[in-house]
Design brief:
Elements: E1 2-6, E2 13-18, E3 36-42, H1 46-56, E4 61-67, H2 76-88, E5 96-101, H3 103-115, E6 121-126, H4 129-135, E7 140-145, E8 148-155, E9 160-164, H5 173-190, H6 192-206, H7 210-230, H8 245-255, H9 262-279, H10 285-297, H11 310-317, E10 323-324, E11 327-328, E12 330-335, E13 338-342, H12 347-355, H13 358-365
Parallel strand pairs: 2-9, 3-4, 3-5, 5-6, 6-9
Antiparallel strand pairs: 1-2, 7-8, 10-11, 12-13
Helix pairs in contact: 2-3, 4-5, 4-7, 5-6, 5-7, 5-9, 6-7, 8-9, 8-11, 9-10, 9-12
This protein binds nicotinamide-adenine-dinucleotide (NAD) and glycine.
Length: 367
């Protein structure tokens, strides 16, 4: 087992990464203050893992809360189901909420923990690659609004993150690819040598080679922990973690939550951010093409939805959380391995990025 730490003073917490951690009570019990524990999961993950986790917590009064599965359920109605269950079972303010699932469950369970009786203990047990390398670390919690992705929520750090890498064995291939989008993101924004490593190891990652996956998860979590430790509330560098997300969130919202997976939208959105960076002369076209090929090798879409017009993008991007005083700040690459957040770009370059023919570009590359 490897342990990393998110350094946030007295709110610091460990990220444990390894095989079979779901069966290790000693990794959980230090963070459970009372006798009550609520495991928030969904109808897909609960049948696979909730019994095992309940056994691990055999000394506690465990309440399973099983939600419907899907991004489309990341909303007020589903959040209310968590509060209904906690109140019906008379969970008090010493209860501990454990998220057992992907990013949707982690974000909703974390938001519920932040709100229930004004805040109760919270532990993340992420079960998708995406949630293991990104959403379980850093304390962003929340739900979607019909007008915008993740628009309602709270910063609320977990007490611990437990990543059992063997849980990826049951993950559908499309979901694994979606997680790889966020892994590739770390290489692009802050770790160029990691891109080379990913190019060398992509086939092993997709074949679920445990050692290779563990390395990718550790390296991603280390990058995320460093950024969160430096800028918990996203007043600066943390925004770089949103490379491709402004374009990607527009795709997710426009297409309907769950139609494009978050990681898929991030991949296509990142290609747009790279196209814009290339148009600004910050990265070269070969750099852009290198990233496109890596996304393709990860099994990800690299062309935005054909039905989305530039106006569709602009409408959705106008409610992005990086908009300040009406100015849309974008995460772009100054060079491979170095991201910047900026509103200093000519409007025409953004417009050209939105009308670019990505299908033709990818066809030219032979993809
Ligand atoms: P998800 O939570 O919808 O999980 C994907 C699918 O895989 C679901 O159907 C789920 O039931 C299933 N699943 C999960 N684990 C499984 C397993 N081990 N075996 C079989 N099936 C399994 O999606 P996701 O990609 O994990 O997360 C996406 C969400 O995360 C989005 O809502 C996004 O906004 C959010 N997110 C949040 C942050 C953050 O910092 N909080 C960062 C990135 C993404
Ligand atoms: N996923 C972006 C962040 O955590 O800031």
């Amino acid at each position: 087992m490897q342990t990393l730490k998110v350094e946030l003073g007295e709110r610091s917490y460990p990220i444990h990464i390894g095989e079979g951690l779901l069966d290790r009570p000693e990794l959980l019990t230090p963070y459970i203050v009372g006798k009550q524990v609520a495991i928030v999961s969904n109808s897909t993950i609960a049948p696979l893992y909730i019994e095992r986790l309940t056994q691990t917590l055999s000394g506690y009064n465990v309440l399973p809360i099983v939600l419907p599965d899907g991004e489309a359920f990341k909303n007020w109605e589903t959040l209310q189901l968590i509060f209904d269950a906690l109140l019906t079972a008379r969970h008090d303010r010493r209860t501990t909420v454990i998220a057992l699932g992907g990013g949707v469950i982690g974000d909703m369970a974390g938001f519920a923990a932040a709100c229930y009786q004004r805040g109760v203990e919270f532990i993340q047990i992420p079960t998708t690659l995406l949630s293991q390398v990104d959403s379980s670390v850093g304390g962003k919690t929340g739900i979607n609004h019909p007008l915008g992705k993740n628009m309602v929520g709270a910063f609320y750090q977990p007490k611990a993150v437990l990543i059992d890498t063997t849980s990826l064995s049951t993950l559908p291939e499309r979901e694994l690819s979606a997680g790889l989008a966020e892994v590739i993101k770390y290489g692009l924004i802050c770790d160029e040598p990691f891109l080379t490593w990913l190019e060398e190891n992509m086939d092993k990652l997709r074949a679920l080679d445990q050692a290779t996956l563990t390395t990718a998860i550790e390296r991603s979590c280390a990058a995320k922990a460093a950024v969160v430790g430096a800028d918990e509330r996203e007043s600066g560098v943390r925004a770089t973690l949103n490379l491709g997300h402004t374009f990607g969130h527009a795709i997710e919202t426009h297409m309907g939550y769950g139609v494009w997976l978050h990681g898929e939208a991030v991949a296509a959105g990142t290609v747009m951010a790279l196209e814009m960076s290339a148009r600004l002369g910050w990265i070269s076209e070969p750099d852009r093409n290198r990233a496109i090929r890596l996304f393709q090798r990860a099994g990800l879409p690299v062309v935005p939805p054909e039905e989305m017009t530039p106006d569709d993008f602009l409408t959705h991007m106008a409610v992005d959380k990086k908009v300040i005083d009406g100015r849309l700040r974008l995460v772009l690459l100054r060079r491979m391995g170095e991201a910047v957040v900026t509103d200093e770009y000519p409007k025409e370059v953004l417009q050209a990025t939105l009308v670019a023919d990505y299908r033709a570009l990818v066809d030219q590359l032979g993809g």
